[in-house]
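Incident log, structure service

09:12 report received: a user says their structure output differs between two submissions of the same chain.
09:20 pulled the input from the user's history:
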Amino acid sequence: MSLSRNLVYAAVLAAGLAGGSASAAASVPAGAADWLQTATQAYRGHDYPAAVAAYRHAADLGDATAQTSLGWMYANGLGLSRDYAQAARWYHAASQQNFQWAQVGLGLLYDDGLGVQRDPAQAQAWYLKAAEQGNHVAQSNLGRLQANGKDYVQAARWYRLAAEQGDAMAQFSLGLLYSQGQGVPQDQQQAAAWWQRAAGQEFAWAQAALGVLYSSGQGLPRDLAEAAKWQQRAARQGVMLAPGTLQAIDVSVPARGWLAASPTSAP
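09:34 re-ran on a clean worker, output below:
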């Protein structure tokens, strides 16, 4: 059983682009700040064509945040026609400035062959650049790639780094490694602990997994009321797991994306 793919490119802006990350981007080029402010106001007002125009002005001046934002607008088809090749172009420009969220976006495009030829090695290389800057999404994706290559020790390493930053997908995936004893000693209590953290963030697969543990008494005291609670919360999001299915989940194919940015956290 593999988890559903969730390629939500919107979240390239979720954390790093809320005003730009001082650790991830160079200083704002002269003349770009006003365009960025205009773009932010237009985006939050849902005037996407105006946001695109303002981002393009700042991007042409060499601003990495604007270049990444413009790439994201192309990837999502907001304010213009969806164009993954243009998304890749602008992500690449910002990635050359070591902007971590652009590197994540470019890695995702190489991961799936959108706008560029599919190239897992290139995807891994761009994820690594962002992961070394502490980017939790890149770290989680590196964990997935390592799990796909059956290097579960390295998968656990990268998942743990992301999980400790609160990445729910990584928390679930690390818990799955503990549950299955891949790359780490099998430990249902550790699995439960990580799934509880992810479930608290409304991550449906973790909620469903907790339901299984509570119903079976593995890693947690058997509690049918708690099992029903978590199973119901997961079911409301369309996820259901039957007892005995946890070992069948393929840890190498978790969803790649992450939740979309809200209007208040976008550029």
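09:41 both user submissions now match this output. Likely a transient worker issue. Closing.
09:42 reviewer note: Confidence is low (pLDDT under 50) at residues 1-16, 18-24, 254-267. The first helix runs from residue 32 to 44.
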